[in-house]
């Protein structure tokens, strides 16, 4: 119980002040003139003013609130190493029991767990502490006991930043003599041009290992397949020269052989996620004669910012005799040797649009084109009446790589293009606008009867289920055949038109090996929280996928059909690092979190990071395991009053709570009732008597 003196004045403050000043003046004047009874008069006036001020005695009953002790548990990736997780859980259970048994202590547990997140900014232990204590006043905080490996990345630089003065204790998991080999990225680009060479620089550090440190083998993998290796000296940076093979994300992974007594293999790998950027695609469009479809091809290819187009239209055949000067028909002569011999390999795609030979290209040039395609080039043939012509491309060496053979002359008949069974699954034609099994596309008026070769894939069909669009491969290159020259009708919106733009754009990019248009592929992607496994296939089923997380644990995923030719499954991305997926034929990799995560920058347990903060708050840092990994005795926990040191040999302390709450209060007035009135009347009578003598 506490006692205090208060006031409850009967008058307004200004009136009470005026009466007080008047009483002071009267009493002071009487004392100054040494009048008889001046002392009694001053006492009477003082008591009168005090009575008007309403003095009262207050009695309050208070109850001390329990102190809040926080058990702060670190469950980050480094805490899940062998031995640490078990030590953490054992210490957590024992401390929770001891803290609950302490009188005047309220226990709160705060846990930092980086699973299921992709923050990648390390162990944020004190952020979790701040969230836990957000509703607790500082005077109630008894202390913090953190169970961690000491690898904490948000330790306050000053104890004042905590917002309380209670002690902070740290119990460190992990052995004091740990050895760890770490492979880190020293320098690497984020982007690279396709076909160009980039330099990846790494460094191997053997932390805690005795000298001398022997050489180590480092292998470099690209998309899960080893492409290079070398023997290096730990502590010295080294580099790999790598080629960017394709557009899109490319994952390079360096792996170093393990060190004897190594703490963990998790940081024996370093990942570089590089995005391949293709320079502008170089396309050669050769139109055999002016016709309405020529403009559709030109407009489409010119509108694509990633395409550099070279377009030639044959306006007059060499044998034609119309007496018109050549200079009036063309700006330059058709540079056959320069295009099809000297600079053929500068192009990514050649499009023959209704082309006939007519003596312009000799068999030698067509043989150059065939060799170029087999080496990785691409050819698209858009045919009309030219395909059945004796001078058509079907009668040239190019027929060796075409995906179909000619049956007859083109048929002048109406038909509506539609996807085949494989076309519904192929990325080029799978989800075209207004498509599907029964598309609402406009009619075409001519189709060249062709027979697909066994290796070809028919994506679109015309009348009588005859192939309309066929794709094929030749060596390392690709070939496409559009058995009609009527796609321009879609561009002119004839009979409702059709998706000529998306179709031709996808077709061109598939021929130039765009990874997103591969019909047989396995992809593994992540948004930081979930992993998505995607299998694209022309088959009717998809095999299960084996998913391997960064710790080496495997799980089997059964894929579900998401769309024709597209199968998917997703799982939680609960571990940061490199994930692998394989169905036995294809392998895909992706990296969750930053390529060089802060959590893996230092995996050895340490006392150094938390020691300054513990010292400044009167706390302590102790280890839970000895050099052999055996558990050490857990310190006792006591509650102490006041400041100073809260730790000693075999014990750690918490600060007693300084916060309380009022449970009751009472007041007693000192200037009310008959007793106070009688006292004032008595004093006034004494003053009158003294002055009357």
Which SSEs are present, and which pair or pack?
Blueprint: E1 2-7, H1 13-32, H2 38-53, E2 55-64, E3 67-74, H3 84-101, E4 105-112, H4 125-132, E5 141-148, E6 168-172, E7 180-187, E8 191-193, E9 197-207, E10 216-222, E11 225-232, E12 238-243, E13 248-256, E14 269-277, E15 281-287, H5 292-303, E16 307-313, H6 336-342, E17 349-353, H7 363-374, E18 378-382, E19 404-406, E20 418-419, E21 450-452, E22 457-461, E23 467-474, E24 477-482, H8 488-491, H9 500-511, E25 521-526, E26 530-536, E27 545-548, E28 554-557, E29 560-563, E30 566-572, E31 577-582, E32 587-592, H10 611-616, E33 621-623, E34 636-640, E35 647-648, E36 651-655, E37 660-669, H11 674-692
Parallel strand pairs: 3-4, 3-5, 5-6, 6-33, 8-14, 15-16, 15-17, 17-18, 18-24, 34-36
Antiparallel strand pairs: 1-2, 2-37, 7-9, 9-12, 10-11, 10-13, 13-14, 19-21, 20-22, 22-23, 23-24, 25-26, 26-30, 27-28, 27-31, 29-30, 31-32, 35-36
Helix pairs in contact: 1-2, 2-11, 6-7
Please give a structural write-up:
This protein is an alpha/beta fold and 693 residues long. It has 11 helices and 37 strands. The strands form 9 sheets. It has an 8-stranded mixed beta sheet with strand order 16-15-17-18-24-23-22-20. Strand 29 (560-563) and strand 30 form a beta hairpin. Helix 2 runs antiparallel to helix 11. The protein starts with a strand and ends with a helix. The relative contact order is 0.14. The model has no long low-confidence stretch (mean pLDDT 84).
């Amino acid at each position: 119980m506490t006692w205090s003196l208060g006031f409850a004045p009967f008058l307004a403050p200004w009136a009470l002040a005026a009466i007080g000043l008047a009483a002071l003046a009267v009493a002071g004047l009487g004392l100054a003139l040494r009048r008889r009874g001046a002392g009694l008069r001053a006492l009477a006036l003082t008591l009168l003013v005090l009575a008007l001020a309403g003095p009262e005695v207050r009695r309050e009953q208070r109850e001390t609130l329990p102190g809040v002790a926080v058990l702060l548990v670190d469950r980050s990736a480094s805490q899940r190493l062998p031995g640490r997780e078990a030590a953490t859980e054992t210490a957590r259970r024992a401390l929770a029991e001891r803290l609950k048994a302490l009188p005047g202590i309220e226990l709160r547990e705060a846990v930092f767990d980086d699973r299921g997140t992709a923050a990648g900014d390390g162990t944020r232990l004190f952020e979790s502490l701040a969230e836990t204590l957000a509703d607790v006043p500082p005077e109630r905080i008894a202390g913090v006991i953190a169970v961690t490996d000491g690898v904490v990345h948000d330790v306050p630089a000053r104890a004042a930043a905590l917002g309380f003065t209670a002690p902070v204790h740290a119990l460190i998991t992990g052995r004091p003599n740990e050895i760890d080999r770490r492979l880190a990225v020293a320098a690497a680009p984020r982007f690279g041009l396709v076909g160009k060479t980039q330099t990846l620089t790494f460094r191997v550090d053997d932390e805690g290992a005795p000298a001398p440190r022997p050489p180590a083998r480092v292998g470099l993998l690209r998309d899960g397949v080893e492409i290079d290796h070398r023997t290096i000296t730990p502590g010295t940076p080294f580099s790999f020269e790598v080629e960017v093979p394709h557009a899109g994300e490319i994952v390079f992974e360096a792996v170093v052989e393990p060190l004897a007594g190594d703490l963990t293999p998790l940081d024996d790998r370093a990942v570089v996620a590089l995005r391949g950027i293709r320079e502008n695609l170089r396309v050669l469009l050769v139109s055999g004669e002016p016709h309405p479809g020529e403009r559709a091809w030109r407009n489409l290819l010119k509108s694509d910012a990633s395409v550099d187009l070279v377009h030639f239209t044959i306006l007059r055949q060499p044998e034609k005799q119309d007496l018109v000067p050549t200079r009036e028909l063309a700006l330059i002569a058709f540079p056959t040797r320069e295009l099809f011999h000297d600079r053929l390999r500068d192009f990514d795609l050649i499009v023959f649009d209704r082309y006939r030979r007519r003596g312009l290209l000799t068999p030698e040039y067509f043989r150059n084109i065939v060799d170029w395609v087999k080496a990785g080039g691409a050819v698209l043939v858009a045919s009309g009446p030219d395909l059945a012509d004796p001078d058509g491309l079907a009668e040239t060496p190019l027929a060796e790589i075409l995906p179909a053979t000619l049956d007859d002359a083109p048929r002048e008949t109406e038909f509506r293009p539609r996807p085949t069974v494989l076309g519904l699954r192929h990325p080029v034609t799978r989800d075209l606008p207004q498509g599907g099994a029964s598309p609402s596309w406009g009619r075409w008026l001519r189709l060249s009867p062709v027979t697909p070769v066994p290796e070809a894939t028919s994506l679109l069909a015309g009348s009588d289920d005859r192939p309309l669009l066929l794709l094929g491969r030749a060596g390392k290159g690709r070939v496409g055949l559009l058995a009609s020259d009527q796609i321009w009708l879609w561009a002119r919106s004839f009979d409702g038109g059709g998706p000529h733009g998306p179709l031709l754009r996808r077709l061109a990019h598939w021929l130039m090996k765009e990874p997103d248009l591969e019909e047989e592929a396995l992809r593994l992607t992540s948004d930081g929280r979930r992993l998505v496994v995607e299998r694209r296939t022309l088959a009717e089923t998809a095999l299960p996928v084996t998913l391997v997380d960064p710790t080496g644990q495997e799980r089997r995923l059964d894929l579900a059909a998401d769309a024709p030719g597209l199968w998917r499954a997703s799982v939680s991305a609960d571990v940061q690092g490199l994930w692998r997926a394989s169905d036995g034929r294809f392998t895909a990799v992706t990296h969750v979190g930053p390529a060089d995560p802060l959590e893996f920058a230092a995996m050895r347990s340490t006392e150094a990071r938390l020691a300054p903060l513990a010292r400044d708050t009167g706390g302590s840092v102790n280890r839970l395991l000895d050099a052999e990994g055996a558990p050490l005795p857990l310190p006792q926990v006591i509650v102490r009053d006041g400041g100073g040191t809260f730790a000693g040999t075999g014990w750690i302390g918490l600060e007693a709570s300084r916060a309380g709450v009022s449970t009751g209060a009472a007041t007693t007035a000192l200037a009310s009732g008959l007793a106070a009135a009688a006292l004032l009347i008595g004093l006034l009578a004494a003053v009158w008597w003294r002055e009357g003598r």
